[in-house]
Amino acid sequence: DAGVIQSPRHEVTEMGQEVTLRCKPISGHNSLFWYRQTMMRGLELLIYFNNNVPIDDSGMPEDRFSAKMPNASFSTLKIQPSEPRDSAVYFCASSPQGAVGYTFGSGTRLTVV
Amino acid sequence: TQLLEQSPQFLSIQEGENLTVYCNSSSVFSSLQWYRQEPGEGPVLLVTVVTGGEVKKLKRLTFQFGDARKDSSLHITAAQPGDTGLYLCAGDHAGKSTFGDGTTLTVKP
Predict the structure, then answer these.
(1) B66-72 contacts, C-beta under 8 A, 24 or more apart
(2) Which tens digit of pLDDT belongs to each residue from A35-60?
(3) N or C: at which end does chain A have fewer Cβ atoms within 10 angstroms?
(4) CB contact under 8 A, B30 and A50
(5) What percentage of chain A carries pLDDT values higher than 90?
């Protein structure tokens, strides 16, 4: 089991550029979560999917953020345009539907300059 | 908004000491999880507690869920340098987890 796989591990981009973060959940896990971690705000839930369908996106900061899950093995989180305040570590996590407790990926450290 | 407050925020102890960290909320959760996170990695699930008053043990770690399912504690016996990390609690409600800000534990050899 390769676990939850996120790419890239690090991303440095200029303000105004589009950023796409990628996640491959554990095979068979029906629920997928995107979190953002910062020193100031800790771990914040951005959006989660059940069976590829977005269930709750109330944590998405603003319209610059969007997430998709085109199939059970792939999800993306896109920021367009990016801003310096978006700098954070973005985590993807997955779990079997209805299960409590998640498996997290290693995260993508995003720096917007 | 369901908030989880963890205390202390930082804890630095010597190897062999015992410690307890706390996770408190005014909200009731259907379950509560404890994770440990090391630098540069994602949180790793340690345990899930579901029943009020439940106690679970994982080697030198003892987890307790409050009777009212609003709070939890993590006790570590004879801490070791390998226990160093950020300990996060998370409360589950309506299918999603809300995380506390964590306790950063440093165990000095």
Answers:
(1) B68/B28, B69/B28, B69/B29, B69/B30, B69/B32, B70/B24, B70/B25, B70/B26, B70/B27, B70/B28, B70/B29, B71/B22, B71/B23, B71/B24, B71/B25, B72/B22, B72/B23, B72/B32, B72/B34
(2) 999 999 999 999 999 999 999 999 99
(3) N
(4) no
(5) 93
Chain B residues inside the 8 Å CB shell of A104: 35, 42-44
Residue B88 C-alpha, separation from nearest chain A C-alpha, in angstroms = 9
pLDDT band at B2 (very low <50, low <70, confident <90, very high): low
Query: Is B45 in contact with A105 (Cβ distance < 8 A)?
Result: no
> Are B97 and A103 inside 8 Å of each other by CB?
no
* Mean pLDDT of all residues in B11-23: 98
pLDDT digits (tens, 9 = 90+) for B24-54: 999 999 899 999 999 999 999 999 999 999 9
Dihedral (Cα; A103, B53, B69, B62), 10-degree rounding: -40
Nearest to A106 among B31, B41, B50 (CB): B41
Distance CA B65, CA B92 (A): 13
Residue the block writes with tokens 């896109």: A78
Q: Do the Cβ atoms of A104 and B100 come within 8 Å?
A: no
Residues of B with CB under 8 A from a CB of A: 30-31, 33, 35, 40-45, 48, 50, 88, 92, 95-102
pLDDT at A1 over 80: no
Place of tokens 């999917």: A49
